[in-house]
Design brief:
With about 160 residues, the protein is an alpha/beta fold. It is built from seven helices and nine strands. The protein has a single domain, classed as Fructose Permease (3-Layer(aba) Sandwich). It is found in: Cytoplasm.
């Protein structure tokens, strides 16, 4: 099984905070972006590769490719696994990939979403995905920066009308 050092939701995918904070904090040497749209459209990948700099190998895969290829990755590849949303992570764990913890970063406001804090907004589909992740043994925690405290998504949303 692959050496996944961090699994993170961040709608922005690769940006300075990922490279300078999370990448270094996790010890990753590879960033795997699991996203159907970006994996299928190579021109969209260049800005993300540029944002990662030369510190990381950057790989783009569809969710299905991620499920098929992660078990083949060598332990020397320390992977920061990035998805834009909890639904993609839910699909990955339903495909048999074990992810003990999902780190929740930026989930922007969109129509129908409710603010959890200034960085996280969720809707009923997001919460269904978090429930699915929990059912598959994954803990989902909000943590903006490595030095920030971790907060359980279910504790943070228990009083919200979603």
């Amino acid at each position: 099984m692959a050496n996944i050092v961090l699994a993170r939701i961040d709608e922005r995918l690769i940006h300075g905070q990922i490279r300078l904070q999370w990448g270094k904090h996790s010890g990753a040497n590879t960033i795997l972006v699991a996203n159907d749209e970006i994996a299928e459209m190579e021109p969209l990948q260049a800005p993300f590769k540029a944002s990662a700099g030369s510190d990381f190998a950057v790989i783009f895969r569809t969710i299905e490719q991620t499920i098929a290829n992660l078990p083949k990755a060598g332990m020397d590849r320390k992977i920061l696994l990035l998805c834009k949303n909890p639904t993609d992570f839910s699909r990955i764990v339903q495909g048999g990939i074990k992810l003990p913890e999902i780190n929740i970063g930026n989930m922007h406001f969109h129509e129908g979403r409710v603010a959890v804090n200034k960085y996280i907004n969720v809707d009923k589909h997001d919460m269904a995905a978090f429930n699915s992740l929990r059912d598959h043994g994954s803990v989902s925690t909000i943590q903006h920066m490595p030095e920030s405290d971790k907060e359980c998504i279910f504790e943070m949303t228990k009083d919200l009308q979603i």
